[in-house]
Amino acid sequence: MAMNKIITSNKNHPLFDKISKLDGFIELDNLTDQSCDLLIDLTATDSDSKRDLFNRFKCPIITDLSLNNGDKILKEFRHIEIAVSTIFPSPNLKAEVFYSLMTYKNELLNLFEKLDLKPVEVKAPGIGFIFGRTIVQIINEAWFALEDDLATEDAIDTAMLFGVNYPRGPLSWGAEAGLKNSVTLLKELHKTTNQDRYKVCDKLQKACL
Amino acid sequence: MELNLVTIIGAGTMGRGIAQWFAQCGVSVELTDANAEALEQGLSLVHKSWKKLEQKGKFSSSEISTFENNLKTVSLNDLSTSSDLVIEAIIENLEIKHKVFSDLDKRMDAKTILASNTSSIPITDLATPLSKQRKERFLGLHFFNPATIMKLVEVIKGNDTDQKLCDDLEAWFSEKGKKPAQCKDSPGFIVNRVARNFYGEALRIAENREFSEIDHVLKEVGGFRMGPFELMDLIGIDINYDVTCSVWEAFQKNERFAPHKIQKEMVDKNHLGRKTGQGFYGHE
Known about the structure:
The complex is a heterodimer. Chain A is of the alpha/beta class. Chain A has two domains: 5-121, 3-Layer(aba) Sandwich (Rossmann fold); 130-207, Orthogonal Bundle (N-(1-d-carboxylethyl)-l-norvaline Dehydrogenase, domain 2). In chain A, 43% of the residues lie in helices and 16% in strands. Chain A has nine helices and seven strands. Chain A has a seven-stranded mixed beta sheet, with helices on both faces. In chain A, α5 (129-147) packs across α7 (170-177). Chain A is globular, with a radius of gyration of 17 Å. Chain B is an alpha/beta fold. Chain B contains 13 helices and eight strands. In chain B, α1 (13-24) crosses α2. The radius of gyration of chain B is 20 Å and the shape is globular. At the A-B interface, β6, α5 and α6 of A face β8, α8, α9 and α10 of B.
């Protein structure tokens, strides 16, 4: 018997166009409480909205926790079997994957193939995974530099591309990931650690409005 | 803008790399250093680099001989006073740099542009001993190592620098294949400020994860050529820590730039990276 699988996402996800074409796709806003064998949640949203969803669906879940405290969420929701991070664009088209259980590994591999992504297995999701947490801080600082009128957007991206060989300029990287997503992860880091190093740059915050 | 003669002060890694790049651009270069032995060694290393590039087929032998003719060494007392641009690339010490620039201000023609390759000292502070006219022709030109390969030049405007001079230099560097980025005179300029979190955040993630996993993910997923821990081992953990502390102090100890305790612990243990055989990784 074919597995009843639902794939959901929202427009904040930079890969939304691709995801929305997958079999079994239902946009988050249209998702009603219904039974299924597997929920693949690729929404780009804050942790409270994630918790709502995980409370509504008790089936096994593959979820994107790019913007969330994955370590904490996995402890709260034992039916999450795989956590992934697909929101911050990888120049190598790779994404971090954490397997809590391996039952749906093939489903994950099929999904990644359709999204043109290759998995890189990690030992824990942490907060925003390794790549997201690092890049969001670089993006935030680039916005602080812009706020301080240090240089133009072009000059900031040029400097990082040609001074330290970054694969993308941080400001265009942030735009590609979605500015709202950077803000959501920074707020999660700030809330979790209570450290001001994660305070969102005002100019970045305003740019999301 | 025309730059026919450029003078580079300091024959260390940065100075000789900058001199080599200008010579390759067809500009006459005078390279000088307070230490005659270091100056000769600097020139010899540039010549060796050109030999290698010739062997690799990057340049023809006639191109190399042109480059060699373009690059001359001179003693500090014998600098041509008609140089179009003087770039200082010596030790990061404000007092010593002040002495050098004060002397250059008196000796060089009025048209000569004076520049510093400093990565950490404010340009406006460096300009203090200069005459009013020279302050307008004084700026930061921050190259990246290796200067012949890395395309970025940060063009840093001090409080009194003529904006047109910055624009003209930006255009000149662009024409010669560099990627100039103009910025204000602010701690760390662009790169040393924005790049701080590549290390800073990785160090915080490392509280619960292995260095090798972080490096692996940032290379594989992030597309960075080296991971932060490999890079700190290469640069020198002490040097990276010094830059971190300097930017942090300059930003009134803002938490965004705070050094991590692991950095200090590594420095205290003399685990400085490749140069001591032990850093975040072992280097036998």
